Amino acid sequence: MGAAVPHRASRPWIRKPAVLVAVAAAVLAVAGAAVTVAAVRHSPPRPAARPVPSGLPDPGRLTAGQLAGQRVIYSYPGLTPPAALLQLIRRGEAAGVIFFPGNISGPAQLAAVARRLQRASMSPGSPVREPLLLMTDQEGGEVRRLPGAPGLSEKQVGQSPDPAAAARGAGAGAAANLRRAGLNVNLAPVLDVYRAAGDFIDQYGRSYSRDARQVATLGAGFIQAEQDAGVPATAKHFPGLGAAARGQDTDHVPVTVNVPATTLRQVDELPYQAAVRAGVRLVMLSWAVYPALDPAYPAGLSRTVVQGELRQRIGFRGVTITDALGAGALRPFGAVGHRGQLAAVAGMDLLLCSGGTVNQGEQARRGLVAGYQDGLLSHDSFQAAVRRVLALRASLAQPASSGSRNP
């Protein structure tokens, strides 16, 4: 998952999901009252990277619950998808599922689960008969959910005799590994430019280099190889967590990255420019606060960062996805439903509900439904986000080709 650091596990190729900070409902209610969503009208987003094929459902014909579900990535406990999740999928109220070590006993088991989930999505009567987004974090090194490729961490790739070839090999290997297990989206690569040895991102070898140009080149190579092999990549964590000190983990605590805007744009955002040129399909936003860009909101809740920096300045037209919506960094922003509304106001397309319960995803979905129905969330912008997600889902049914570099 986004900013989570890997825990040591009995099986070295996987790590346990970060333990999300438990917050009592009453405390969340008080925190939520302190932060309100400004009822702002969105300016129309840039067109979807790929037009939605005519065979896809018209978002205008979906119910509010189905529209909201198209923006939620669910999670669940254990090895077997619960009936409640399968029902949501059949009703067209889920965009996809994220998998963690607790969901996986091996590639064959996971592939069987993936087939079951996809059958539910394609079942007769389902209003959205498109492939689900089935995703995990397969970065390499210690941050892997499945055994096998990529074996090298990003830092090891950057230090290898031929880093460019190693990055391409890691991307291709990750894609092949995920496809064997029935998965179709990778929440990788990390494009953070680390600053000091042993800092938050470097601690587990999650950065290619302290040189932004090197990160840009290797990240683009990973992305191109993975997407040419048929698995959409996710560049993370925009605008960059490389300056976060050791222990500054947004999964657990609020984090502030005090870096001048010029440095953010010339160093931290540079790899994302290369990723966009390489055709990256998804970008994950950081939960850190960047005062030089927006002193009030974390990046993934900031319209200034999502729409201003990523969409307009960088030119990204694909799908945006949050980091874990249950993260401790979002403790000041109320309950999950309220956080999801804030993320949607900012311009996030997908909400990552990775807390290990279907109920967390349902809280986020209900928050989106409420915002859509009461006018807090612009209907035009909401449906534009759904069109981007539907286009991504539809593309997964198409054979891989070199055209994947230009989503």
* Termini separation: 23 Å
Low-confidence stretches: 2-52, 398-407
- The best one-word shape is globular
**CATH topology grouping:** TIM Barrel
Highlighted features:
two-stranded antiparallel ribbon; TIM Barrel; 10 strands; globular; alpha/beta; disordered N terminus; single chain; 37% helix
Description:
The chain is of the alpha/beta class and 407 residues long. The chain has a single domain (25-405), classed as Glycoside hydrolase, family 3, N-terminal domain (TIM Barrel). The chain contains 13 helices and ten strands. The strands form two sheets. An eight-stranded parallel beta sheet has the order 4-3-2-1-10-9-6-5. α3 links the parallel β1 and β2. α6 runs parallel beside α7 (212-228). The longest helix is centred in the middle third of the chain and has 18 residues, at 163-180. The protein is globular. It starts with 24 loop residues before the first helix and ends in a 12-residue tail after the last helix. Residues 2-52 and 398-407 have low confidence and may be disordered.
Summarize the helices and strands and which ones pair or pack.
Blueprint: H1 25-34, H2 64-69, E1 72-74, H3 83-90, E2 96-98, H4 107-121, E3 133-136, H5 154-158, H6 163-180, E4 185-186, H7 212-228, E5 234-238, H8 261-268, H9 270-277, E6 282-285, E7 289-290, E8 294-298, H10 303-313, E9 319-324, H11 336-346, E10 350-352, H12 358-373, H13 379-395
Parallel strand pairs: 1-2, 1-10, 2-3, 3-4, 5-6, 6-9, 9-10
Antiparallel strand pairs: 7-8
Helix pairs in contact: 6-7, 7-9, 11-12
